Amino acid sequence: MFHLSGNFNLKSSFYMKYSLGYLWDLASVITEKELKVRYKSSFFGYLWSIANPLLFAMIYYFIFKLVMRVQIPNYTIFIITGLFPWQWFASSTTNSLYSFIANAQFIKKTVFPRSVIPFSNVLMECLHFLCTIPVIIFFLYVYDMRPSIDWLWGVPLIGIAQMMMTFGIAMMLSTLNLFFRDLERFITLGIMLMFYCTPILYSGDMIPEQYRFLIDFNPLANMILSWRDLFMNGVIDYHQIGMLYGYALLFIIIGVSIFNKLKYRFAEIL
After folding, report:
1. Under 8 Å between Cβ of 215 and 82
2. How many helices and strands, by DSSP H and E, does the chain display?
3. How many CB atoms sit inside 10 A of residue 180's CB?
4. In the prediction, which pLDDT does 133 show?
5. How many whole angstroms separate alpha carbon 153 and alpha carbon 194?
6. Are 140 and 147 in contact (CB under 8 A)?
7. Which residues touch 187 (CB under 8 Å, ≥6 apart)?
């Protein structure tokens, strides 16, 4: 029988299998295991979760601010407040493509809620994102700016919405990728396309009027702009965040529907 830790048994009682406490404990244990595997024998450990987006921020700063001379104040903070939450989303969705495949032996041999696997990927990247917030605070002080008291409820408010939306997308992609293995190639290209269609490197008001739909109908734009308003201006745009929760619920409904329809075939496919 497969044990995750101590008394924690995957083949637990019917009641425990469907309790929220059990699901959270299971997700926490799987996330902890994935973190240990990822950073095993790594000297810098979790610092790599910060180094990657920071390196891209330096590259984009050089290209857009120093070479192309984009007229956006405090451009370093502008970039990282978009890149850090984007990294959370992009890494979660990309890793989710292989989440069921990587855990094929567990799925075949043990009984547990399969949806916990993509959720643990989202949770792990969420922890990485939280590690980047001190970096944002550092750059705020460098540019003579300060964190707002609104961060105390703004960060959880936006963070839960992003986690919900990302989990819905991750569950949908991880399920479909089992049956359509070419999907991973399209998703990689799609994420790259969405990166440039989302106001991360540029501000929304720089987009010509005829292309405003790239923001108006882009849930990732709502996500990035919500974070940027909070981090840079200390503003919680409840209308924008409300739209983000709407998109999150939509993606969860789609993701759960696809997952529930196909989950019974996982063992035979894997």
Report:
1. no
2. 13, 2
3. 10
4. 92
5. 28
6. yes
7. 93, 94, 97, 173, 177
- Expressed in angstroms, the distance from the first to the final Cα of the chain is 20
What local confidence, expressed as pLDDT, does residue 179 receive? 84
pTM: 0.83
Is the CA virtual torsion 225, 226, 232, 233 positive or negative?
A: positive
CB 171 within 8 A of CB 118: yes
Residue 225 neighbours by CB under 8 Å, 6+ apart: 199, 204, 215, 237, 240
Question: For residues 150 and 230, is the Cβ–Cβ distance under 8 A?
Answer: yes
Mean pLDDT of the chain: 82
As a whole number of angstroms, the distance between CA 95 and CA 187 comes to 11
**For the chain, what's the residue count?**
270
User: Distance (Å, rounded) from C-alpha 47 to C-alpha 49?
Assistant: 5
Closest by CA position to 27, among listed 105, 113, 101: 113
- SS3 call for 148: coil
